[in-house]
Amino acid sequence: MEPVPARAHVVFAQEVSPPDPDQPILREVESPELRELTDPSTVAELVTDAFAELAGDVLARLPLFLIGLLVFVLLLVVVRLLLKVVNRGMLRGDVDFTVRRLVTNLLKLFLLLGVVLLSLSIAGVEIGAMLAALGLIGLGIALALQNILENLLSGVMILIRKPYDRGEIIVTEEVEGYVEDIDLRVTTIRTYEGTLILVPNADIFSAPITNLSRRGTRRTTLHIGIDYRDDHERAKELLFHTVEQIPEVLSDPPPQVLLTGLGDSSVDFEVRVWFDAQEGVPKMLDLCYRACKTALDDAGITIPWPIRTLAADMQPLQVEQRAGAAREQPAAAQLERPSGGEDRGQAALAEHQPLVRPRPDPPPRPPEA
Question: Which residues partner with 319 through β-bridges?
């Protein structure tokens, strides 16, 4: 069989004349198909067919829809019973009202969302794209509300664990005062001056908290000193009986009076008393200090003030400057020293010996001829 020779295609260039400007661009086209599509009867027929097809699909899936609706109703009943059980459990556990309301609402939201998605899935609806969209929306909300969510979770943990409650006195960082209110975002603290401070729950939850009134009682300490010449045993007994008679001071645990040191000018005592935490430290210090001062005065026991005693010899003194230039300054001083102060004055002179020295006696004059 002989091969068929290929035909050569020759293209001839043909000059095309420009379009007539008077001729319209859009021209009426005579097409049977187009006329059929624009015919009202044809359009009505197409719509009718579409609805008929949709109705056929609905009728075909009607059992699935009915099953999904039945599952939805049953799950709503289950959700309602479950919420009642959870609420009763939190009531028995003495959970705060704010936490109960938050947990109930969140649980209700998630359960209803799960019920709707499960019912749609049973009915034959594709929920994959819906779940992906919900995940993206949740991620965006979490990133946008990061600080608010942190305070929210911290508030929930504070309300559940209850490291402090309304009316208690707490110290957190540099804030001290009475707890006025606790919500899901901030804790309101009233200071002793009456100022309200709103502290974010995230800051409180991540910082050390000192609860001063959780146990109901507090202890404060008074520092009192008496003169060395007074009887310290008598003073100790007097201080104990004085604070013991104050009505606001608790007898259990009893007060304590301890000798804690021998100061420069006094014998130092610590008076430790317990009291109701709601009384406040300033009030108790005022009551105890006034009572102790009155009792010591009535007993003739002196509360001394700091005293410093300086002593110098009778001989003239020569003051030497540190720079090396000596300047003589004749001075004679005699200070009256109380009994028992000689050793302390001599120690003071010995300590300042490099700076203050007695001037030596002049050499004897030679006899005149």
Answer: 327, 356
- Per residue in 163-196, is it b (16+ CB within 10 Å) or e — as a string? ebeeebbbebeebebbbeebebbbbbbeeeeeee
C-alpha dihedral (64, 68, 70, 72), degrees to nearest 10? 180
Question: Which residue is it, tokens 């069989």?
Answer: 1
Global confidence as pTM: 0.52
DSSP letter for 367, please.
P
**5-25 pLDDT, tens per residue?**
545 444 444 555 555 666 555
Q: How many CB atoms lie within 10 A of CB 74?
A: 12
Q: Which sequence spans correspond to the domains of the chain?
A: 45-144, 164-211, 217-298
Fold of 45-144: Helix Hairpins (1.10.287)
CA–CA gap between residue 193 and residue 213 (Å, rounded): 18
User: Which of 233 and 101 is assigned the larger pLDDT?
Assistant: 233
Q: What angle do CA 269, 273, 278 make, to 5 degrees?
A: 145
The better pLDDT of the pair 54, 211 is held by 211
Tell me the longest C-alpha to C-alpha distance in the chain: 175
217-298: CATH architecture? 2-Layer Sandwich (3.30)
Q: Which amino acid is at 98?
A: T
Whether 309 has a pLDDT exceeding 70, the answer reads no
Is-contact 336 298, C-beta < 8 A? no
Q: Are 217 and 189 in contact (CB under 8 A)?
A: no
Say if domain 164-211 classifies as CATH 2.30.30.60: yes
How far apart, in Å, are the Cα atoms of 225 and each of 243, 266, 276? 16, 5, 26
b/e string for 129-138 if b means 16 or more Cβ within 10 A?
eeeeeeeeee
What type of residue sits at position 246?
I
Phi, psi dihedrals of residue 250, rounded to the nearest 5°: -80, 145
With CA atoms as reference, report the closest residue to 174 among 224, 141, 209. 209
